[in-house]
Amino acid sequence: MLMRTDPFRDLDRLAQQLMGPGTWSRPSAMPMDAYREADEYVVAFDLPGVAADAIDIDVERNMLTVKAERRPVAKGDDVQMELSERPLGVFSRQIVLADTLDTEHIKADYDAGVLTLRIPIAERAKPRKISIGIGTGHKEISG
Question: 74-92: per-residue pLDDT in tens?
Fold first, then answer.
């Protein structure tokens, strides 16, 4: 069996044991990536092993909140756990969204343990041309 050496694995495991699993009042953080793709922002959250119905997404004003709960897998009476490193409990992440994003049209997809949110850029925030009146004619300036 090939083992990857990670000097911080035992420290992480100890911290998880001391703090216990995340709860609704004290959730654990979830890893995420955020990037811009064309005219939308994309935020991807890693939530492996979380059922889609255990994910809650809310937007209030410009605050996006994602909460998820990874529940233990039901095991039979004859199962003896040898090793348990996968964290259980509640995970949460809050992101302050810019005013330039259209929070009314957020799309959410969940596939292969990754929750992907696509947030379009508001029309008012996109570059546009403004015409300037000079005497009787108009001149356009790109902005």
Answer: 788 888 888 877 778 888 8
